[in-house]
Write a structure and sequence with these properties.
Largest sheet: 7 strands, parallel
CATH topology of the domain at 2-179 and 230-261: Rossmann fold
Distance between the termini: 29 Å
Helix content: 25-40%
Radius of gyration: 19 Å
Oligomer: single chain
Mean pLDDT: 96
CATH class of the domain at 2-179 and 230-261: Alpha Beta
Structural class: alpha/beta
CATH superfamily of the domain at 2-179 and 230-261: NAD(P)-binding Rossmann-like Domain
Bound molecules: nicotinamide-adenine-dinucleotide, UDP-4-deoxy-4-formamido-beta-L-arabinopyranose
Strand order of the largest sheet: 3-2-1-4-5-7-12
Number of strands: 15
Length: 344
């Protein structure tokens, strides 16, 4: 299938492009580079052995989006493009609602116009809200405590309404905590400035770029007092997109949500220690106060994805850490590091 990847220069989109090529599909990338760089494109060519067509378009622009669809004529769309920094969305909700909602509407509108009927949407475990049970199965009562999360809830609802009223087929994928990097060392997460997520922060501390990690809270009701999360390797997540794409392309589903996680809770301290093992470097940390809004424990019930998509996340926490470390060493400044010296 010709698969348009919106936000395809980003962290998850770039890894999904690789796994789509491996599965025999033809990806096409569109990105505004608001949170990424075209420097990823030659890396993708190196990894896949193929030049993936890429368009520089802000999907908020409806006319430009429509023109893209007229030219690219995709069979399916994987819609990753969004702003994703949770705390920034609290400070600047307008930008989040405009970017995330308007770009989703532009994309769906263009799909309906040109007869493209298959969409995968990047959602998040954040749609289960603050009252969710620690291990969450897919459910339809959605809420979120932040503007970022509410854009995901709203877009899920918009897509569900449209799918039920048209022949659009939608797979909603609710990710837990994607981490890791491509084992080549050529693709990975390249956060601008100080990372807000745990894994890139740990990697920068191990590399000596930052002095120490602050663990947000050591007094949670968990076995070691730190929060439990469901970390999954970004390549497993990418494979989940290929599985969902092939499932909804069959045509029997109008809209369906799947959790994508490993289903295994891992604490902050466990991840730190796994990273120390994988890197052979110490990760100094201090235990600080809790971060506002953090839930003590969140992990996926993966039953539905296993039984309906035949997908499960297979890569271990050790692989997540080893691949992150390889990426960190080869690209100390992310894609700004220039040409990477790839391993393996
Ligand atoms: P990312 O920022 O690396 O990738 C998103 C890409 O979308 C970027 O390349 C950005 O430049 C592009 N983009 C944003 N707005 C655009 C617009 N208007 N037009 C064109 N391009 C635009 O983020 P990611 O981690 O790869 O996340 C991908 C998707 O997965 C997002 O929708 C995010 O909300 C969702 N998600 C991410 C996580 C996570 O922890 N990384 C967890 C759950 C859900
Ligand atoms: C993981 C754990 C922190 C940083 C976020 C979004 C969520 C989704 C994925 C997009 C928590 C702890 C972190 C640090 C720490 N994104 N931590 N010190 O919060 O589970 O999820 O990313 O949809 O919506 O909220 O991920 O990586 O920020 O935190 O102790 O410096 O690490 O308290 O327990 P989170 P995270």
């Amino acid at each position: 299938m010709r698969v348009l990847i919106t936000g395809g220069a980003g962290y998850i989109g770039s890894h999904t492009a690789v796994q789509l090529v491996r599965a025999g599909h033809d990806p096409i990338i569109v990105d505004s580079y608001v949170n990424s760089t075209p420097a990823v494109l030659p890396r993708l060519e190196q990894v896949t052995g193929r030049r993936i067509p890429a368009y520089d378009i802000d999907l908020v622009d409806e006319a430009a989006t429509r023109a893209l669809f007229d030219e690219a004529r995709p069979d399916a769309v994987i819609h990753f493009a969004a702003l994703k920094a949770v705390s920034e969305s609290v400070d600047d909700p307008f930008s989040y609602y405009r970017n995330n909602l308007q770009s989703a509407l532009s994309v769906v509108g263009a799909m309906l116009d040109v007869g493209c009927r298959t969409m995968i949407f990047s959602s998040s475990a954040t749609v289960y809200g603050d009252g969710a049970a620690p291990s969450t199965e897919e459910q339809d009562h959605l809420s979120s405590g932040t503007p970022y999360g509410r854009t995901k809830v709203m877009i899920e609802q918009i897509l569900t309404d449209i799918a039920r009223a048209s022949d659009l087929r939608v797979a909603v994928l609710r990710y837990f905590n994607p981490v890791g990097a491509h084992p080549s060392g050529l693709l990975g997460e390249s956060p601008a400035g100080e990372p807000s997520n745990l894994m890139p922060y740990i990697a920068q501390v191990a590399a000596g770029k930052r002095e120490r990690l602050t663990v947000f809270g050591g007094d949670y009701p968990t076995p070691d007092g730190t929060c439990l999360r469901d970390y999954l390797h970004v390549l497993d997540l990418a494979d989940g997109h290929v599985a969902a794409l092939e499932k909804i392309a069959e045509g029997s589903i109008d809209v369906r949500a799947w959790n994508l996680g490993r289903g295994t809770p891992v604490s902050v301290l466990e991840l730190i220690h796994a990273f120390e093992q994988a890197s052979g470097r110490p990760v100094p940390y201090v235990v600080g106060p809790r971060r506002a809004g953090d839930l003590p424990a969140v992990w996926a019930d993966t039953t539905r994805a296993r039984s309906e998509l035949g997908w499960s996340a297979e890569r271990s926490v050790e692989e997540m850490c080893a691949d992150t470390w390889r990426w960190q060493c080869a690209n100390p400044d992310g894609y700004d590091s220039g040409i990477a010296t790839a391993h393996g």
